[in-house]
Write a structure and sequence with these properties.
Strand order of the largest sheet of chain A: 1-2-4-3-5-6
Strand content of chain A: 15-25%
Bound molecules: adenosine-5'-diphosphate, magnesium ion
Number of strands of chain A: 14
Shape of chain A: globular
Mean pLDDT of chain B: 94
Largest interface: A-C, 58 and 58 residues
Structural class of chain B: mainly alpha
Oligomer: heterotetramer
């Protein structure tokens, strides 16, 4: 295992400390239980926005804490959901009296821990609503699975919902926006290489020099199919077609196109994929109204990418464009 | 009716500590099972959690079974994360909140254990045959109550419970997972024993050992 | 070679097209000769800022084109300096009448091509000043070498000089600021893995599973020494000590601390390194006034990092904090 | 004095085209040399550049040597990049701007070639023994003028120039590089022949072949 770390057991805490040192103007960090909270929290009268999950997906979620996005993020161990006590303390830290929205990626562990946290918070008289993101079209959604995983759309939810909260929308309205973003967005990802959980010390899955994995999650879960490596054109096509067919996206739709790097893939390649995506969308008569290209929801050092499409309306565009000031996303401020 | 043995908090503590020793011993084995159909951390999670439980208990054990089991549950919930944390946490919490103020009779124990299992099921929404820990816990609970109902000794009842739990865990091998991470694999989840069911069978086995005649 | 590309010969152009599609609000792209220019160029009366070099270092340089930073960037083939005709056209495109500054990384190829471009531009009556960055302490600077390579400080120069130009400073003053930033900054880098030039198809150098290369450049040039992989603590120490001793930085200095990823290293690791760097600087009584953590000057998909320290004064801090709006760096706008 | 042969633009074109063929043939070999002490692209750069030159010439050749060599130089400068682009480009530009309006005499050719070498040296600031193309080009220029001065035929003079260039290229092997990327390696640059000196020796050899008696 080649990583710039010390003891694998300390990587999450040491990385948090580095983050705190670099972004002390934006956030405060509590270490036990661990959460990264907006420096000016709680914001009186504003709905608090909380998200969290396993670590290893940086900049998500801690890098999205700040004005116009998250009020607080709960980091778990690498690829392990955080715990209810963390979420409870974090919820208390950002309750400005208007209640707190929990944005939860759909994994059994995350769901169960967030449910318990919501129960506990309710017990403490804090109004909590939870919205689950489940945008991964690689997983068939049926009664016989834990359902689709929450992936790329989570980043877009956090930005858009954060803006809705800044506008002063109430908890119900903010949760409604979050559900809409999740409902209008779809994602699919692929890997050129596996990733190595520091505590495990070896790659989560083995992939040959000439193989790629299509339909992966963000924890090195095995994907939908393993194929010989292919051109950016073919890869983009394989990721985009299931997305387009699933919603389905139609000619005339306006979308936000998000090409995300998995952690080990450089920008030069992500823009090649974005170029291919533009061609596919143009051919379908879909208008790209907004875009995001970069590594925002990652899987440690995995090489690969995911593509997310979100159907936009005027309100979502306005909320996307609203000012945001976080370590990972910043504009208008 | 089974004879009215008195089950003390000390015995319950011995059971929980035995489970901690077992989780440390089976850490690699459980993680290997989880690598096949999950994300390869079940043994790590359970060991991390039970270590924390023992540390907590070593700072002073709660006086009664109710408080004791609630402390165990809360510790697991706050230290494990993932799916197993809240599920095992709920099991112990429910066991504790169902326990009477003073010592337990075997029937009390069976009722508490069944309450714990019910808690896991309502928390995780898993049915039997979904290839989860429920497939080990439910048979154990049923077997213990049935045995006590038939007048078996507490030791014998727990032995039967452990056998049924192990049987249930083995029976998860051919199943297709319908809950948890393993469900993402669909058909590919068959042919592997469920890690959570395996750890749950060990919990039942530890009980049988603790109260063996 | 595992990359999200099509024909290796097309990677630079296709990536540029993707970049143009994603950032059409910020830049225009000319393809023959290739340059990425601010959408509103030339800015009347403002000194134009031009930089360029081989591709494969994204977001540098194209990602730094926009208000408050570069007016234009010239991308060469991967790891090959651009050509004088490119630079000449780019220079003409951004001359707002106040002359154009060329920021040149110190590599023979870059120097020679920029020199010819300056001659040509002079011939066309455009006032051009060139400033060379050479901050890499891994290379001994002597009469017997081509001198130190230009690396991390280049990014900081482009930001600070861009702000100086926006302030309306004239060409001589802007060039002076650029020379000062280069003089006050030092960098050293390391690699955990090599990188693969698409046209070559195989790694530029071989590195064992248990080896790392200390003192690398940004083109996969071999470094100063090859060592067994070590902890983030030891790596940070090996990179920082030569930097501190070289300027030298002294107790009481205020610095900008820049931890840069080489392309394949995720943020979680860069923050661990940043945490170690903070400890080293605190021990020396050096104050970190500003920071930058992320992958800004990369070497394709290479895993590794570089550390840059820049000694700051009030003017440099003011210029660093000034608004910038580019694809790669954005604040205050 | 050498006899007054007339060197036509057609012959100069044959020389340049022969060099293009040679660069294509030696692409891998030159790149391998550059991999050892540089960044492994010299053969790729030279081949890319000379291909562009031939494409340009195929669209119509300039009428005189001066215009012809300037076109070659400008094409290399705009297509190659790196260190070799401006250096070879300067060589051809200087050769062209030194050439007389009409055909060249051998002495003219020697003067033009020397001017090209001088251009490379002032552009790259390299001294002899710095382990660069200058170590092949300068000996070639000197040998040709000397030979012509001694009354040798143009063909013989070029043959001597080629020999000296090759000798100079081989002599770069033990040298420590003081210019270009190779200089970053310091002592580790010894034991390898300089790629640019190698391509320059091929340029001289192509001239000798073109005007062989
Ligand atoms: N919904 C559920 N109900 C009951 N048990 C479940 C459920 N989901 C998962 N499990 C159990 O949890 C085990 C996995 O635990 P663990 O690996 O520690 O958590 P994670 O899956 O979050 O990594 C599975 O083997 C299964 O027995
Ligand atoms: N300053 C210089 N003067 C003369 N020749 C040089 C100089 N620097 C480099 N060279 C020549 O250029 C050659 C390398 O060319 P090339 O590999 O195409 O460019 P780059 O080094 O930019 O990749 C070297 O082998 C050397 O002969
Ligand atoms: Mg897990
Ligand atoms: Mg698991
Ligand atoms: Mg080169
Ligand atoms: Mg080279």
């Amino acid at each position: 295992m080649k990583k710039l770390i010390n003891d694998p057991a300390d990587v999450v805490t040491e990385s948090l400390k580095g983050f705190a040192a670099a972004h002390g103007d934006l956030v405060r960090i509590n270490y036990d239980p661990a959460y990264i909270v907006r420096a000016d929290a709680p914001v009186k009268g504003k709905v608090g926005i909380l998200s969290g999950g396993g670590s290893g997906h940086e900049p998500m979620h801690g890098g999205f804490v700040g004005m116009g996005m998250l009020d607080v993020a709960c980091p778990g161990e690498v690829f392990t959901s955080p715990t209810p006590d963390q979420m409870l303390e974090a919820t208390k830290a950002v309750d400005g009296g208007a209640g707190v929205l929990h944005i939860v990626k759909n994994y059994t562990g995350d769901i169960l821990n967030f449910e318990m946290a919501a129960d506990l918070a309710g017990g403490d008289g804090i109004q909590v609503e939870a919205v689950i993101t489940n945008d991964d079209v690689a997983v068939q959604d049926s009664l016989y699975t834990a359902g689709r995983r929450g992936v790329g759309v989570t980043v877009l939810c956090e930005k858009i919902v954060g803006a809705a909260a800044e506008e002063g929308k109430d908890l119900a309205a903010v949760a409604e926006v979050c559900r809409r973003v999740n409902a209008e967005g779809r994602t699919m990802g692929m890997a050129l290489t596996s990733c190595t959980v520091p505590a495990a010390g070896k790659p989560t899955f083995e992939l040959g020099d000439d193989e790629m994995e299509i339909g992966i999650g963000i924890h090195g879960e095995p994907g939908r199919e393993r194929l010989p490596v292919a051109s950016a054109r073919e890869v983009t096509e394989r990721l985009t077609t299931p997305i387009l067919d699933d919603l389905p996206f139609a000619s005339g739709d306006r979308v936000l196109a998000f090409v995300n790097g998995m952690g080990g893939t450089p920008l030069i390649e992500l823009y090649v994929v974005y170029h291919e995506l533009m061609a596919l969308l143009a051919a379908r008569g879909i208008t790209v109204a907004r875009s995001l290209v970069g590594s925002y929801i990652t899987s440690l050092e995995m090489a690969g990418c995911s593509i997310t499409l979100l159907r936009l309306d005027d309100e979502l565009i306005r909320l996307w464009d609203a000012p945001v000031h976080t370590a990972g996303l910043r504009w208008g401020a | 009716m089974s004879e009215a043995t008195h089950i003390t908090v000390g015995e319950v503590s011995a059971w929980v500590r035995a489970f901690a020793v077992e989780m440390a011993a089976q850490k690699e084995a459980l993680t290997a099972l989880d690598s096949a159909i999950g994300d390869g951390d079940h043994g790590i999670n359970m060991d991390r959690g039970m270590r924390a439980v023992v540390e907590k208990l070593d700072t002073g054990e709660p006086p009664d079974v109710a408080a004791f089991m609630k402390a165990v549950g809360m510790t697991l919930i706050s230290k494990v994360g993932g799916a197993a944390g809240p599920l095992y946490g709920t099991f112990f919490l429910q066991f504790g909140s169902t326990a009477p103020a003073d010592d337990l009779t075997p029937d009390d124990w069976a009722v508490c254990f069944a309450a714990g299992v019910a808690g896991v099921r309502s928390r995780g929404k898993a049915e039997l045959q979904d290839k989860t820990m429920v497939d080990a816990l439910q048979p154990a609970a049923d077997a213990v109550s049935a045995a006590l109902g038939e007048g078996a000794s507490f030791a014998d009842a727990l032995a039967r419970g452990a056998e049924q739990a192990e049987e249930g865990a083995r029976a998860t091998i051919p199943l297709v997972a319908r809950k948890g991470r393993a469900s993402y694999l669909g058909e590919r989840s068959t042919g592997h024993q469920d890690p959570g069911a395996t750890s749950s069978a060990l919990l039942a086995r530890c009980a049988a050992r603790t109260w063996a005649a």
